[in-house]
Specification:
4 helices
Length: 86
């Protein structure tokens, strides 16, 4: 998963193209959602920040079914990326 999240994608920001990691793109999207008033995104972001700064263990808040869906999506996305590279 770490390798997948470090892959670069193109971002068009104020008319300028630049490359960012998927990881950064995800956090940018969460921040955008927070600023639009999405309280679930805000809670997630603030909990992650607190866990990082306090050293406490991080809870994902995902049950086994959610984790399975996420893993399946990541595998599907990875296979799409691999097929584009070929």
């Amino acid at each position: 998963m770490r390798e997948l999240l470090q892959q670069k994608i193109s971002l068009n920001e104020r008319g300028k193209a630049r490359k960012i990691t998927i990881h950064e793109g995800i956090f940018r999207r969460i921040i955008e959602d927070c600023l639009k008033g999405n309280t679930k995104s805000a809670a997630f972001l603030l909990n992650r920040h607190h866990a990082m700064t306090s050293g406490e263990p991080v809870e994902t808040g995902l049950d086994e079914d959610d984790e399975a869906v996420l893993e399946a999506y990541l595998q599907k996305y990875q296979s799409k990326l691999n097929s584009k590279e070929e």
